[in-house]
Design a protein that fits this description.
The chain is built from 14 helices and 13 strands. By secondary structure, the protein is an alpha/beta fold. The chain has two domains: 176 residues, Glycogen Phosphorylase B (Rossmann fold); 186 residues, Rossmann fold. The chain has a seven-stranded parallel beta sheet, sandwiched between helices. α7 crosses α12 and α10 crosses α13.
């Protein structure tokens, strides 16, 4: 059985971290899997009895400290790979990729295969991406669109597409466990999920919802994700919708909350492969998403959800200023919610599309590549 080392900065809340943890669990029957992290604080994801090595090198402020961290991480990873006789080292995201490259390709020409995971369109801005392309055995991109961009920009011949995967039966089972603690018992709930991050465009979300709520007063907005959301709570108050908006915070099991929704609204201007969008679709939520650089358009494939215009990326917390794109999106959401037949059709399409991203396809690709 080949030894597979998965490398991620931490197992704290985050998209890359979640994919790493899930990858470890589903590949355990096929590989001798272990995980390396840089920081063991605030672990959120359960990986069972899979061995986890903490390299003890969390992020540090300052340019010099960051450079030294890269070198130290690479050196410790190199020792770990040799000690454990790793066959494949698969890293997730820019900082983990850097350490993997330094451990496997710059410090030594021999050793484990070097697989690097490009998890977001934001990684395209990394000054190291050109190096990754030259030093990786495989560059695994979270969407087909992103793979095409990287191949064109860097003339990269080792890029492959490996989209997110989902255990749909498990998601549905988890959705039945526990209750979502919401401040309201009735009304139609619009849901969005993600950490408090400017790329998620939550100010757009709140302004769009304010317009929807004005037309359909029974609607509510549920935001699931880590963060204080202080500025957004104030914006909700300024918009007069504070009583109709609930910030649920980080949830270890978000699925009972997702299940309460009828429509999922994604307002990001950057994504890689938005896992939360597909998770919501797997529970039958109608999907509406911005046409950001990668992700939603590929998932919807022209028919499985409603794609709306991407919006401004500069935070605008002025409640009196509403963009035309926000007005257009709100109008589309209202038209959906007022049409039961269309909602039912998109709900069925959501479930159908989510089923394409199965864990079986993900496992099959990795097992095929591991024998190359």
């Amino acid at each position: 059985m080949k030894k597979l080392l998965l490398i991620v900065p931490s197992l704290h809340q985050g998209g890359s971290e979640k994919v790493c943890a899930m990858t470890a669990v589903i590949l355990k029957p096929y590989f001798d899997v272990r995980i390396a992290i840089f920081d063991s604080a605030n672990i959120d994801f359960d990986v069972g009895d899979i061995p986890v090595t903490d390299l003890g090198l969390p992020s540090r402020p300052g340019k010099i400290s960051k450079v030294l961290n890269v070198l130290r991480r690479g050196h410790r990873l190199k020792r770990l790979k040799r000690k454990e006789q790793i066959d494949i080292a698969y890293s997730f995201g820019p900082t983990a990729n850097l350490a993997n490259v330094f451990a496997g390709r710059l410090f030594s020409r021999k050793g484990a295969k070097c697989w690097l995971g490009v998890m977001s369109y934001m990684d395209m801005d990394s000054s190291w991406l050109g190096l990754f392309c030259k030093k990786a055995d495989r560059l695994l991109c979270c969407s087909e669109t992103l793979r095409g961009m990287i191949e064109k920009k860097y003339e990269c011949g080792c890029a492959y597409t490996l989209t997110g995967f989902f255990d749909i039966p498990q998601i549905r089972a988890q959705a039945e466990k526990g209750e979502a603690a919401l401040p309201w018992q009735d009304g139609r709930v619009i849901v969005s999920m993600g950490r408090e991050d400017v790329v998620k465009g939550f100010w757009h979300l709140l302004k769009i919802f304010a317009l929807v709520h004005r037309e359909l007063p029974d609607t509510k907005l549920l935001i699931i994700g880590k963060g204080e959301f202080t500025e957004y709570r104030k914006l909700a108050a300024d918009l007069g919708i504070a009583d109709a908006v609930h910030f649920a915070g980080l949830q270890r099991n978000p699925y009972p909350y997702l299940k309460r929704g009828v429509l999922y609204l994604l307002t990001s201007y950057w994504e890689g492969f938005p896992n939360a969008l597909v998770e919501a679709m797997s529970l039958g939520l109608v999907a509406v998403a911005t046409d950001c650089m990668t992700g939603p358009a590929e998932i919807f494939d022209g028919k499985y959800g409603v794609l709306v215009s991407n919006m401004g990326k500069e935070p605008d917390l002025d409640a009196s200023h509403i963009e035309e794109a926000e007005k257009n999106t709100a109008a589309r959401v209202v038209s959906l919610l007022e049409n039961e037949e269309e909602m039912a059709r998109y709900s069925r399409l959501s479930v159908e599309r989510a089923g394409v991203y199965s864990k079986e396809a993900y496992i099959r690709k990795i097992r095929e590549w591991s024998v190359d």
